Fold these 2 entries.
Entry 1:
Amino acid sequence: AQSVTQLDSQVPVFEEAPVELRCNYSSSVSVYLFWYVQYPNQGLQLLLKYLSGSTLVKSINGFEAEFNKSQTSFHLRKPSVHISDTAEYFCAVSDQMNYGGSQGNLIFGKGTKLSVKP
Amino acid sequence: DAGVIQSPRHEVTEMGQEVTLRCKPISGHNSLFWYRQTMMRGLELLIYFNNNVPIDDSGMPEDRFSAKMPNASFSTLKIQPSEPRDSAVYFCASSPGRFAGINTGELFFGEGSRLTVL
């Protein structure tokens, strides 16, 4: 069974500072990895995902995450944050083997609340 | 294309009343998920369906909760009788199943239904 650990429940940063949101997972098989973002009073939206290929994946709004298999990590980074990045960020993992079938579900971390201050 | 549509967006009810939450998944998606989100417990998977069939309902809190998916375009989550501890945001999500031969598990979330039980 997989699990996801987001070590930081809250991360306060100042605007234009860099940020890293940490995500570690455990799995005995190969995985797909996701970051979702939840803005206040909204549902979760996919931010970026790693399925295969390049281990560095990027979103359209400047976030990036790198899959590190040896460290079982998928940390999310942004070199310069904006006020509008204030949200809760969820890391999630799914089992590639399980998805040989047609059902299954993502395992979510507990979320990290990013608070960007002026 | 329309996303996942949930109704109502907000519901305030009194303890003991029946509550019905509704969800219309994205057309063509074959998996549907109900989640509950609270400050204390975070995001919890309640139940998921594949091709309209309930696959795993182990997350349903108790017999007061029931979910149905009578067809591919509609699902309900019912709480009867409701209790104050059921107050939460309930999310519906759908998944496209296989994409280019791969089922990655990516989920598409609705905006949520915020339930307050007085």
Entry 2:
Amino acid sequence: SQTIHQWPATLVQPVGSPLSLECTVEGTSNPNLYWYRQAAGRGLQLLFYSVGIGQISSEVPQNLSASRPQDRQFILSSKKLLLSDSGFYLCAWGRDSNSPLHFGNGTRLTVT
Amino acid sequence: QKEVEQDPGPLSVPEGAIVSLNCTYSNSAFQYFMWYRQYSRKGPELLMYTYSSGNKEDGRFTAQVDKSSKYISLFIRDSQPSDSATYLCAMYNSGYALNFGKGTSLLVTP
């Protein structure tokens, strides 16, 4: 069976510090990978998705970037965090563009 | 008009009640419909996945899609306190961008 791992679960970072959130998927190959941000009262916002190694599509211009160095690894990064980057970040995978998404348990990021 | 509308609740019901959760949408091209359950501080968990119109049943859960009305529903029979969570609907035509509702908060009281 497939599993998705996301870490850390909680992170508190000062403004201006860098960020690296990691997500890995097990039990499948060549998955579509996604980063979402969930803000209270605002629903789930798609940030990035990837259909293969090194292939990243950005949905929202922002202070963040994503990379996919390996087939089942997806990384969300920032060089300098802003207060507005605080939120609940979720990684997800899907078999293809017509399949449902499966989410990790998220990282709650607080920028102070 | 937002593409997916969902009443945020909270919806409070007694244990054993039948729960009805609903979403409306505006894009008639949507073909794939999902319901997710999200517990506090956890990621959404896929509950139901349906394609096009009709009903789908899985245990105590039934998903219903009415494309003519652009309306989808999730029914929970014999609700339990462990069903207390936020329920998110999601849908898309094809491609990579799921359109989510903002979620309905459900509380099932013993």
